[in-house]
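WP5 quarterly update. Target: Inositol 1,4,5-trisphosphate receptor-interacting protein. Source organism: Equus asinus. Length: 552 aa.
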Amino acid sequence: MALGLFRVCLVVVTAIINHPLLFPRENTTVPENEEEIIRKMQAHQEKLQLEQLRLEEEVARLAAEKEALEPVAEEGQQQNESRVAWDLWSTLCMILFLVIEVWRQDHQDGPSPECLGGDEDELPGLQGAPLRGLTLPNKATLDHFYERCIRGATADAARTREFVEGFVDDLLEALRSLCNRDTDMEVEDFIGVDSMYENWQVDKPLLCNLFVPFMPPEPFHFHPELWCSSRSVPLDRQGYGQIKVVRADEDTRGCICGKTKLGEDMLCLLHGKNNLVQPGREMKDPLCARDSPYLDTMQVMKWFQMALTRAWHRIAHKYEFDLAFGQLETPGSLKIKFRSGKFMPFNLIPVIQCDDSDLYFVSYLPREPSGGTPASSTDWLLSFAVYERHFLRMTSKALPEGACHLSCLQIASFLLSKQSRLTGPSGLGNYHLKTALLHLLLARRAADWKAGQLDARLQELLCFLEKSLLEKKLHHFFIGNRKVPEAMGLPEAVRRAEPLNLFRPFVLQRRLYRKTVDSFYEMLKNAPALINEYSVHIPSDHASLPQKAVIL
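C-alpha cells (predicted):
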C-alpha cells in the first residue's frame, strides 16, 4: 500500500512540474507549425462527427427492428388468447357432454311421471325439519302400545321356538340316516338366527329361521373365496363369494411339497405321485356348476329339497300334521299344517361355514325386497346373522336393565310391516332397521338406552333412517367397520374391506327409491293414528305416572 501512495505522489509532482503556467513564456517551446495542429484537431472533430452519425444510424436501425417486432408479438399474444379461449370452450363442451350423459343414464329406465318435474335433490325433507316435522306419540302412549300390542303378541315365541326346534332335530336326524357318508353331503346341527332368536320378532305368524350347515363327503372339502380377496370385483358382487370344491389330495396349498422341489428319492406321504392332478381330467365334484369347480346354488337347493322330502316321508307316520313347502323358489321354506287349519311356517336354509369363523355362505335369504340377485349361480351371499346375534347379546349385557333398544326395533318393525300391507313392499326392510340400530348401539353410551328414553331413541332411529335414505347410503355394520369390538372375532379381511352400501340399489333404481321414500314418510304420517288404533285409550292422568321399565 505504501508503494501505491508513492506512485500517486510521484504522478502529482510530475504534473505540477510540467504544467506550462509554472514557467515563463519565453522559456516555453512553441510548436513551429500551428496550422498542422489545427488541421489535426479538425480531422479529429470530423472523426467524432462520423462516429456520431454511425451511432445515430444504429439507433434508427434498432428502432425500426423494434417497430417491426411489435406486430409479431401482438399476433402471438392474440394467438395465445385465442388458444386459451379455445381450451375454455373445449372444457365447457366436455362438462356439458358429461351432464347430458348423466341425465340420459338417469332417465333411460323410464322414471315415473312425478320424477320428471324436478331433480331428486328436491325431495321433501332433504333440507327441512327432521321427519318433515312429524311427531311421534309420547312416552306413555308408546309404553302402553308396546305392552298391549307387541309384548302380548310375542308371548308365545319361546313355545314356538321349542316346538320347531324339536321337530327340526327329528327331521335332520332322519335325513342323516338316509344319506350315504361316502357320496352324500354331511348335514350338521342347525343354528337359530334372526329376529326370533334375537327377541324382536313382531310379525304374525312367528317365523323361525334356521341355518343348516353341511360338509362334502371325503375326500372333498370346501375352499371359500371372499369377494374382498380380489381387487377386480364388480360392485354388484360385493358381499358375495364363491366356494371351490377341492379334493384333499389335490390341495397342496398347506403342504411343503407344493412349494419345494423334492428329490427323486423323496416322496410326500399326503400327495404321492399317483395322486397328482392330471391336467386334462374332468371335474366330478358334487353339486358343482357344469365345467366348474365351484359349488352351484341351484344344485344345492335342488339336493336339499329332495333330501328334506325323503326325510319327511321317513318320519311322517309319527306326527298328526302335514309338512309342505311354503314357496317353490325357496326350497327350505316349510310349513306345518295342523288338522285344525292353523299352520306354522319356518325356514331351513342350507349354509356353508367360512373357514373357522361365524360367517356363513347362504344360497338364498328370504327377506329383503331391494337385495340384488347374484350374477351367477356360483355366487353365495355372505351372512353375518350369527355375528349380529352375538353382538346384540354382548351389548345387552352392558346396557341398563330393561333397556329400550329392542323395543325401538320392534315398534319400527311393526310400523313398517303395517305400512307394507297398506302400500305394498318397498326397498326398506327389517334388516335395514336392524342395521341402523346396530350403528346407534355402537355410537351411543349405554346410559342412553334406559327404558325411560324409549321415545327419544325411537325418534333418533327414524331420523337416522331418514338421513340414510336421503343420502342413499347405509353402510353394512360389519363389513369395513373397524369400530366393531375385536372381541367379536370378525375376520381381518372383512374388517379391512371397503364399506358395503346397503342402499346402493337406490342409486340405480330411481323408481324404487321414490317409492321407498314416499312409503317411509307415509309410515311416519300414519304412525300416531296406527298406534292409537292398536292400543287402548290412555287417560290424561297416566302421563304423570312413574316410568315403567321394558323387560324383554
